[in-house]
Amino acid sequence: SQKIEQNSEALNIQEGKTATLTCNYTNYSPAYLQWYRQDPGRGPVFLLLIRENEKEKRKERLKVTFDTTLKQSLFHITASQPADSATYLCAPLGANAGNMLTFGGGTRLMVKP
Amino acid sequence: DTGVSQDPRHKITKRGQNVTFRCDPISEHNRLYWYRQTLGQGPEFLTYFQNEAQLEKSRLLSDRFSAERPKGSFSTLEIQRTEQGDSAMYLCASSPSGQWREQYFGPGTRLTVT
User: Fold this and answer.
1) A69-82 as b/e: b if 16+ CB within 10 A
2) B-interface mutation test, from A3, A100, A102, A107, most B Cβ less than 10 A away
3) Fewer CB within 10 Å of terminal CB in chain A, N or C?
4) pLDDT in tens, chain A (113 residues)
5) Chain A to chain B Cβ contacts (< 8 Å)
């Protein structure tokens, strides 16, 4: 069955460092992958979308990579700030999967000042 | 653009009661989704509407769950004969038409079944 794995342990880093979060998937051939941010008690907020033919996508301090050979996406936040503390969710989607999103369990990021 | 709104934000009910939640999507979005999220997990897809038509429904969705979007605008999600396992955050999202568009989520309705 399809499986999406994100590190369930919280990632603690120091302010100013680069945070790297991992999304691994199995039994899947996603055509694209979305990343969302979720703060406690709130709905997810869309951050970035990357397509299978794109190796890397950037938006301000955010960078996403997509390696279809490794079946992995990496999400980087450079020059991290305490305001970046949140849970980050990945959602890979196949070309024929319709419009529903299947999310990983999310990784909680804590940026300490 | 006021974003996606959901009502109520919190609901406490006793086991066996029926509950209904409302979602108002972003006005120009014709797609509407319902998800359920439990603590420490990512949102789990429940159902999807394009305009007033319900096009997808999770196989995990019990017959006790029903959703409507009668005029292609707001949507309601009803849970009949609630069980303690129904306790979760119920999230609504909307998106514009087009392939692989990002979804805009509401704040959610937190349901507690006692």
Assistant:
1) eebbbbbbbeebee
2) A100
3) N
4) 778 999 888 999 999 999 999 999 988 788 889 999 999 999 999 999 999 899 899 999 999 999 999 999 999 999 999 999 999 999 988 766 667 888 999 999 999 99
5) 61
